[in-house]
Amino acid sequence: DAEKSHYISKIKQLLKQQDAVLVAHYYTDEVIQALAEETGGCVADSLEMARFGNQHSASTLVVAGVRFMGETAKILTPEKRVIMPTLEATCSLDIGCPIDAFSAFCDQYPDRKVVVYANTSAAVKARADWVVTSSIALEIVEHLIDEDEKLIWAPDKHLGGYIQKQTGADMLMWDSACIVHEEFKAKGIVDLKQLYPDAAVLVHPESPASVVEMADVVGSTSQLIKASQSLSNPVFIVATDRGIFYKMRQLTPHKEFIEAPTAGSGATCRSCAHCPWMAMNQLENLATALEQGTNTIEVDSALAEKAMIPLRRMLDFAA
Ligand code: CIZ
Ligand code: SF4
Protein backbone atom coordinates (compact mmCIF):
# COMPACT_ATOMS: atom_id res chain seq x y z
CA ASP A 1 0.00 0.00 0.00
CA ALA A 2 0.89 3.68 -0.20
CA GLU A 3 2.32 4.00 3.29
CA LYS A 4 4.53 0.99 2.78
CA SER A 5 5.95 2.24 -0.51
CA HIS A 6 6.49 5.66 1.04
CA TYR A 7 8.71 4.12 3.74
CA ILE A 8 10.48 1.85 1.29
CA SER A 9 11.52 4.69 -1.02
CA LYS A 10 12.49 6.83 1.94
CA ILE A 11 14.70 4.07 3.36
CA LYS A 12 16.32 3.44 -0.03
CA GLN A 13 17.21 7.10 -0.29
CA LEU A 14 18.53 7.32 3.27
CA LEU A 15 20.67 4.20 2.84
CA LYS A 16 22.34 5.78 -0.21
CA GLN A 17 22.78 9.20 1.35
CA GLN A 18 24.35 7.74 4.47
CA ASP A 19 26.61 5.11 2.88
CA ALA A 20 24.64 2.51 4.78
CA VAL A 21 23.84 -1.14 4.06
CA LEU A 22 20.94 -3.17 5.43
CA VAL A 23 21.73 -6.58 6.96
CA ALA A 24 18.62 -8.60 7.85
CA HIS A 25 18.02 -11.93 9.56
CA TYR A 26 15.87 -14.67 7.99
CA TYR A 27 13.39 -14.28 10.86
CA THR A 28 12.53 -10.64 10.17
CA ASP A 29 9.38 -9.75 8.25
CA GLU A 30 9.32 -10.38 4.50
CA VAL A 31 9.20 -6.71 3.65
CA ILE A 32 12.46 -6.11 5.55
CA GLN A 33 14.19 -9.10 3.93
CA ALA A 34 13.06 -8.02 0.47
CA LEU A 35 14.30 -4.49 1.07
CA ALA A 36 17.73 -5.75 2.19
CA GLU A 37 18.01 -7.76 -1.02
CA GLU A 38 16.83 -4.94 -3.26
CA THR A 39 19.31 -2.48 -1.81
CA GLY A 40 22.43 -4.65 -2.08
CA GLY A 41 22.42 -5.70 1.55
CA CYS A 42 22.06 -9.23 2.76
CA VAL A 43 19.56 -11.64 4.26
CA ALA A 44 21.29 -14.30 6.30
CA ASP A 45 21.77 -16.23 9.52
CA SER A 46 23.78 -14.70 12.32
CA LEU A 47 27.11 -16.12 11.14
CA GLU A 48 26.67 -14.76 7.62
CA MET A 49 25.36 -11.44 8.94
CA ALA A 50 28.55 -11.07 10.97
CA ARG A 51 30.73 -11.98 8.01
CA PHE A 52 28.89 -9.68 5.62
CA GLY A 53 29.08 -6.66 7.92
CA ASN A 54 32.73 -7.36 8.58
CA GLN A 55 33.61 -7.42 4.89
CA HIS A 56 31.32 -4.72 3.49
CA SER A 57 32.78 -1.30 2.76
CA ALA A 58 29.76 0.76 3.92
CA SER A 59 30.48 3.05 6.86
CA THR A 60 27.08 2.36 8.46
CA LEU A 61 25.57 -1.06 9.08
CA VAL A 62 21.82 -1.18 9.65
CA VAL A 63 21.16 -4.45 11.44
CA ALA A 64 17.59 -5.77 11.34
CA GLY A 65 17.45 -8.57 13.85
CA VAL A 66 17.89 -8.76 17.58
CA ARG A 67 20.22 -6.87 19.86
CA PHE A 68 23.09 -9.38 19.95
CA MET A 69 23.38 -9.21 16.16
CA GLY A 70 23.91 -5.44 16.29
CA GLU A 71 26.40 -5.84 19.12
CA THR A 72 28.31 -8.50 17.20
CA ALA A 73 28.56 -6.16 14.22
CA LYS A 74 29.84 -3.35 16.43
CA ILE A 75 32.39 -5.58 18.17
CA LEU A 76 33.78 -6.84 14.85
CA THR A 77 33.84 -3.41 13.18
CA PRO A 78 34.15 -0.77 15.91
CA GLU A 79 35.04 1.88 13.33
CA LYS A 80 31.59 1.56 11.71
CA ARG A 81 28.35 3.11 12.86
CA VAL A 82 25.87 0.34 13.65
CA ILE A 83 22.20 1.18 13.99
CA MET A 84 19.11 -0.95 14.54
CA PRO A 85 15.40 -0.28 13.92
CA THR A 86 14.87 -0.87 17.64
CA LEU A 87 17.13 -1.36 20.64
CA GLU A 88 14.40 -3.28 22.47
CA ALA A 89 14.65 -6.48 20.43
CA THR A 90 16.25 -8.95 22.79
CA CYS A 91 16.30 -12.77 22.86
CA SER A 92 15.17 -15.23 25.53
CA LEU A 93 18.58 -16.91 25.41
CA ASP A 94 20.37 -13.63 26.11
CA ILE A 95 17.93 -12.85 28.94
CA GLY A 96 18.40 -16.34 30.33
CA CYS A 97 22.16 -15.97 30.66
CA PRO A 98 23.02 -12.95 32.83
CA ILE A 99 26.75 -12.26 33.05
CA ASP A 100 27.18 -12.36 36.83
CA ALA A 101 25.59 -15.77 37.32
CA PHE A 102 27.26 -17.14 34.21
CA SER A 103 30.68 -15.87 35.16
CA ALA A 104 30.36 -17.36 38.66
CA PHE A 105 29.39 -20.69 37.08
CA CYS A 106 32.43 -20.64 34.79
CA ASP A 107 34.71 -19.76 37.70
CA GLN A 108 33.80 -23.08 39.32
CA TYR A 109 35.25 -25.03 36.38
CA PRO A 110 38.50 -23.37 35.37
CA ASP A 111 39.65 -26.47 33.47
CA ARG A 112 36.76 -26.25 30.99
CA LYS A 113 36.66 -24.28 27.75
CA VAL A 114 33.71 -21.89 27.66
CA VAL A 115 31.66 -22.14 24.47
CA VAL A 116 28.77 -19.69 24.05
CA TYR A 117 26.15 -19.32 21.39
CA ALA A 118 26.11 -16.04 19.48
CA ASN A 119 22.72 -15.29 21.09
CA THR A 120 24.35 -13.73 24.17
CA SER A 121 25.41 -10.33 25.47
CA ALA A 122 28.81 -8.82 24.75
CA ALA A 123 29.74 -9.45 28.40
CA VAL A 124 29.00 -13.17 28.12
CA LYS A 125 31.00 -13.38 24.90
CA ALA A 126 33.87 -11.59 26.64
CA ARG A 127 33.87 -14.38 29.25
CA ALA A 128 34.02 -17.10 26.57
CA ASP A 129 36.81 -18.95 24.82
CA TRP A 130 34.65 -19.64 21.76
CA VAL A 131 31.53 -18.12 20.24
CA VAL A 132 29.52 -20.38 17.93
CA THR A 133 26.35 -20.12 15.86
CA SER A 134 24.11 -23.05 15.06
CA SER A 135 25.63 -23.38 11.59
CA ILE A 136 29.12 -24.04 12.91
CA ALA A 137 28.62 -25.33 16.46
CA LEU A 138 29.05 -29.02 15.58
CA GLU A 139 32.33 -28.49 13.75
CA ILE A 140 33.78 -26.32 16.50
CA VAL A 141 32.81 -28.77 19.25
CA GLU A 142 34.34 -31.64 17.24
CA HIS A 143 37.50 -29.60 16.92
CA LEU A 144 37.57 -29.06 20.69
CA ILE A 145 37.06 -32.78 21.32
CA ASP A 146 40.09 -33.45 19.11
CA GLU A 147 42.01 -31.15 21.41
CA ASP A 148 40.79 -33.16 24.43
CA GLU A 149 38.87 -30.23 25.86
CA LYS A 150 36.01 -30.44 28.33
CA LEU A 151 33.38 -27.77 27.83
CA ILE A 152 30.91 -25.41 29.38
CA TRP A 153 28.05 -24.74 26.97
CA ALA A 154 25.63 -21.81 27.16
CA PRO A 155 22.90 -20.80 26.93
CA ASP A 156 20.62 -23.03 24.77
CA LYS A 157 20.07 -26.41 26.42
CA HIS A 158 18.30 -27.93 23.40
CA LEU A 159 21.04 -27.01 20.93
CA GLY A 160 23.62 -28.07 23.52
CA GLY A 161 21.86 -31.39 24.11
CA TYR A 162 21.73 -32.04 20.37
CA ILE A 163 25.44 -31.33 19.97
CA GLN A 164 26.30 -33.48 22.95
CA LYS A 165 24.32 -36.37 21.46
CA GLN A 166 26.00 -35.97 18.08
CA THR A 167 29.56 -35.61 19.32
CA GLY A 168 29.71 -37.24 22.74
CA ALA A 169 31.40 -34.11 24.08
CA ASP A 170 31.84 -33.62 27.82
CA MET A 171 29.64 -30.53 28.23
CA LEU A 172 28.23 -28.81 31.29
CA MET A 173 25.02 -27.19 30.14
CA TRP A 174 23.47 -23.85 30.99
CA ASP A 175 19.70 -24.06 31.33
CA SER A 176 18.04 -21.68 28.89
CA ALA A 177 15.89 -21.99 25.79
CA CYS A 178 14.44 -20.13 22.82
CA ILE A 179 10.79 -19.29 23.43
CA VAL A 180 9.98 -19.77 19.75
CA HIS A 181 11.56 -23.17 19.09
CA GLU A 182 10.66 -24.63 22.43
CA GLU A 183 6.96 -24.44 21.49
CA PHE A 184 7.19 -26.96 18.66
CA LYS A 185 5.52 -30.28 19.46
CA ALA A 186 6.46 -33.74 18.18
CA LYS A 187 2.85 -34.95 18.39
CA GLY A 188 1.67 -32.27 15.99
CA ILE A 189 4.38 -33.20 13.52
CA VAL A 190 3.37 -36.88 13.67
CA ASP A 191 -0.21 -35.88 12.83
CA LEU A 192 0.90 -33.62 9.98
CA LYS A 193 3.08 -36.35 8.51
CA GLN A 194 0.01 -38.54 8.19
CA LEU A 195 -1.69 -35.84 6.17
CA TYR A 196 1.45 -35.25 4.07
CA PRO A 197 3.29 -38.56 3.73
CA ASP A 198 5.64 -37.06 1.09
CA ALA A 199 6.78 -34.29 3.39
CA ALA A 200 10.31 -33.89 4.69
CA VAL A 201 10.65 -32.50 8.22
CA LEU A 202 13.19 -29.72 8.68
CA VAL A 203 14.09 -28.84 12.28
CA HIS A 204 16.26 -26.17 13.89
CA PRO A 205 18.19 -27.70 16.83
CA GLU A 206 16.92 -25.06 19.26
CA SER A 207 13.78 -27.24 19.27
CA PRO A 208 13.17 -29.90 21.97
CA ALA A 209 14.83 -33.31 21.50
CA SER A 210 11.48 -35.01 20.77
CA VAL A 211 11.00 -32.67 17.79
CA VAL A 212 14.61 -33.06 16.60
CA GLU A 213 14.01 -36.84 16.56
CA MET A 214 11.24 -36.33 14.00
CA ALA A 215 13.57 -34.52 11.60
CA ASP A 216 14.77 -35.58 8.19
CA VAL A 217 17.24 -32.71 8.38
CA VAL A 218 18.44 -30.88 11.50
CA GLY A 219 20.29 -27.65 10.91
CA SER A 220 20.76 -23.92 11.18
CA THR A 221 18.55 -21.62 9.15
CA SER A 222 20.97 -21.55 6.23
CA GLN A 223 21.33 -25.34 6.33
CA LEU A 224 17.54 -25.82 6.36
CA ILE A 225 17.19 -23.47 3.38
CA LYS A 226 19.78 -25.53 1.49
CA ALA A 227 17.92 -28.73 2.36
CA SER A 228 14.68 -27.24 1.04
CA GLN A 229 16.44 -26.76 -2.30
CA SER A 230 18.29 -30.06 -2.50
CA LEU A 231 15.70 -32.56 -1.26
CA SER A 232 13.21 -33.68 -3.87
CA ASN A 233 10.18 -33.77 -1.52
CA PRO A 234 7.28 -31.63 -2.77
CA VAL A 235 6.30 -30.62 0.78
CA PHE A 236 8.27 -29.49 3.82
CA ILE A 237 7.20 -29.30 7.45
CA VAL A 238 9.43 -26.68 8.99
CA ALA A 239 10.17 -26.27 12.69
CA THR A 240 11.75 -22.84 12.94
CA ASP A 241 10.60 -19.21 12.79
CA ARG A 242 8.17 -18.70 9.91
CA GLY A 243 10.24 -15.75 8.65
CA ILE A 244 12.35 -18.39 6.90
CA PHE A 245 9.51 -19.15 4.46
CA TYR A 246 10.27 -15.96 2.53
CA LYS A 247 13.62 -17.33 1.38
CA MET A 248 12.46 -20.94 0.97
CA ARG A 249 9.52 -19.93 -1.25
CA GLN A 250 11.67 -17.53 -3.21
CA LEU A 251 14.22 -20.27 -4.00
CA THR A 252 11.74 -23.07 -4.76
CA PRO A 253 8.33 -21.53 -5.46
CA HIS A 254 6.84 -24.82 -6.71
CA LYS A 255 7.25 -26.53 -3.33
CA GLU A 256 4.89 -26.35 -0.40
CA PHE A 257 6.10 -25.18 3.01
CA ILE A 258 4.09 -25.82 6.15
CA GLU A 259 4.72 -24.47 9.63
CA ALA A 260 5.34 -27.20 12.22
CA PRO A 261 2.60 -27.16 14.87
CA THR A 262 3.22 -25.41 18.17
CA ALA A 263 1.73 -26.00 21.60
CA GLY A 264 -1.51 -24.31 20.77
CA SER A 265 -2.84 -21.01 19.68
CA GLY A 266 -3.78 -17.83 21.43
CA ALA A 267 -3.18 -17.81 25.15
CA THR A 268 -1.21 -21.04 25.43
CA CYS A 269 1.37 -20.08 22.84
CA ARG A 270 3.58 -17.14 23.61
CA SER A 271 5.37 -16.98 20.34
CA CYS A 272 3.82 -19.42 17.83
CA ALA A 273 6.65 -19.87 15.33
CA HIS A 274 7.47 -16.20 15.11
CA CYS A 275 9.95 -14.44 17.34
CA PRO A 276 8.28 -11.43 18.97
CA TRP A 277 11.61 -9.58 19.07
CA MET A 278 12.44 -10.17 15.40
CA ALA A 279 8.94 -8.88 14.62
CA MET A 280 9.79 -5.54 16.22
CA ASN A 281 11.86 -4.65 13.14
CA GLN A 282 9.51 -2.63 10.95
CA LEU A 283 9.78 -0.21 8.04
CA GLU A 284 8.68 2.70 10.17
CA ASN A 285 11.24 2.35 12.96
CA LEU A 286 13.92 1.51 10.41
CA ALA A 287 13.22 4.76 8.56
CA THR A 288 13.15 6.76 11.79
CA ALA A 289 16.44 5.33 13.05
CA LEU A 290 18.14 6.21 9.76
CA GLU A 291 16.59 9.64 9.49
CA GLN A 292 17.25 10.70 13.06
CA GLY A 293 20.49 8.81 13.60
CA THR A 294 19.09 7.13 16.69
CA ASN A 295 19.37 3.55 17.97
CA THR A 296 23.12 3.47 17.60
CA ILE A 297 24.76 0.41 19.09
CA GLU A 298 27.58 1.11 21.49
CA VAL A 299 29.63 -1.55 23.23
CA ASP A 300 32.03 -0.68 26.03
CA SER A 301 35.44 -0.76 24.37
CA ALA A 302 37.21 -2.89 26.99
CA LEU A 303 34.40 -5.43 26.79
CA ALA A 304 34.36 -5.28 22.99
CA GLU A 305 38.09 -6.00 22.80
CA LYS A 306 37.64 -9.13 24.89
CA ALA A 307 34.49 -10.28 23.08
CA MET A 308 36.20 -9.82 19.73
CA ILE A 309 38.69 -12.60 20.47
CA PRO A 310 36.24 -15.56 20.56
CA LEU A 311 34.16 -13.98 17.76
CA ARG A 312 37.20 -13.72 15.49
CA ARG A 313 38.16 -17.25 16.47
CA MET A 314 34.78 -18.41 15.14
CA LEU A 315 35.06 -16.43 11.89
CA ASP A 316 38.63 -17.65 11.32
CA PHE A 317 37.52 -21.22 11.96
CA ALA A 318 34.62 -20.83 9.53
CA ALA A 319 36.78 -19.27 6.83
O1 CIZ B 1 17.28 -18.53 16.55
C1 CIZ B 1 18.09 -17.68 16.19
O2 CIZ B 1 18.09 -16.57 16.69
C2 CIZ B 1 19.03 -18.00 15.14
C3 CIZ B 1 18.74 -19.15 14.31
C4 CIZ B 1 20.13 -17.29 14.93
C5 CIZ B 1 21.08 -17.59 13.85
O3 CIZ B 1 22.09 -18.27 14.12
O4 CIZ B 1 20.87 -17.20 12.71
FE1 SF4 C 1 16.23 -15.59 20.44
FE2 SF4 C 1 14.60 -17.53 19.73
FE3 SF4 C 1 14.12 -15.05 18.92
FE4 SF4 C 1 16.20 -16.42 17.91
S1 SF4 C 1 14.05 -16.90 17.64
S2 SF4 C 1 16.20 -14.30 18.62
S3 SF4 C 1 16.84 -17.62 19.69
S4 SF4 C 1 14.08 -15.79 21.04
TrEMBL record:
Iminosuccinate binds at residues 25, 46, 117-119, 134, 204-206, 221. InterPro entries: NadA, NadA_sf, Quinolinate_synth_A_type1. [4Fe-4S] cluster binds at residues 91, 178, 275. Its EC number is 2.5.1.72. Binds 1 [4Fe-4S] cluster per subunit. Keywords: 4Fe-4S, Cytoplasm, Iron, Iron-sulfur, Metal-binding, Pyridine nucleotide biosynthesis, Transferase. HAMAP family: NadA_type1 (MF_00567). This is Quinolinate synthase.
